[in-house]
Protein: Mannose-6-phosphate isomerase
Amino acid sequence: MTSEPERDISALAKRFERWMYEKSLPFWADHAPDPEGGFYERLDLDGQPILGEDSRVRVQARMGYCFALGAENGWEPERARQLANRSLDTLLNDCRRADGLYGKMVDTGRGRTDDTPELYDNAFALLAFATIGRVFGDVRALTAAGELHEAIERLMRRNAGEGSQAGGYRERLPAPDRREQNPHMHLTEASLAWYEASGDRTALQRAERIAHFVAERFFDADAGLLLEFAGVGTEANHVEAGHQFEWVWLLDRLAQNGGAVLKGLAGTLHDGGMRLLEGLDYLPLSQEVDGSIRQAKQRTWTLTEKMKGHIALYRMQSRDDLLPLILATGNSLWNDHIAPGLPGAWIDAIDPDGRSLVEDITPATGYHLYLALDELSSFAKSLDQWSKVPR
Structure:
């Protein structure tokens, strides 16, 4: 028999599906493409492009990923393919460096304006190539993914001869002294996407290595907290509950692909994230290591990752107490960030009282939203199937 939380989660998922496929993807398909090539970095609050700006390479990659994900779920496959090809064209023609890595900023249609290879942006290029290649069977995307996978290994992997800096990957070139968990997290995600697209076990092995490296270098086991940096003092560090939950989801995905995961780590990260939020009625962007508020604003992505983390932990532990948390987080995402926005778009940041802090609309947020809504939709369907099994 279907429980009330299960019915409510199913209804919430259907509401988000209607919004994503009937409102949001069409909105961005109409408003995001730049006639000069690629996609606009930002729109104003009326949905009109903000002209004359360079774009982050990650935005060009994320847009290709979003339209591929839409096509995978049946949204206008041919139109989605054309939009994904726009992302491919920009990445390959305007963003790629001679060494096979990708720069940081681009003037779409003209070329790179910041040649710095950031691990973060390269991870999103790999995610886009792998997803576009898998969904559409696109040979150009699959080739680009394999080449970038190799370039990251060749140019950005830290080697054993680097002493205290050994392990993981260079966050950018030239390599900084401060180590950062966030780009490693997204390289883990991209590596899993490439493994799922290609079956290349070196990608799965990379994801395993990074997960263990992050646990060793960034995880404070006593506090149950994931630090954002290594190689800096406590006063220069901070924690983000959203990233704690994002790693819960990633560890579950790694395990689903047959990867080795440290036992109990996902649950400990989830517990630590929930402790950070005790007594709060919003999800702050970042907090000091002692839990005090550092950035008192709630971003869309923090809620998407919290919802994904709850879903992932339910898959791992079948805890019914997580169902109301999934529902509450999804409702907050809708009420705080979707419903008040331009139809099909979003309000990306609010203050603790729920007031908008945005002066523009960034398409980059779509990556977080569409992935989380796809997870919610799949989860709701699995709950429905489970409820029909005699127990």
Remarks:
- The longest strand covers residues 111-114.
- The two ends are 9 Å apart (CA to CA).
- Residues 4-31 form the longest helix (28 residues).
- The CA atoms of residues 157 and 169 lie 4 Å apart.
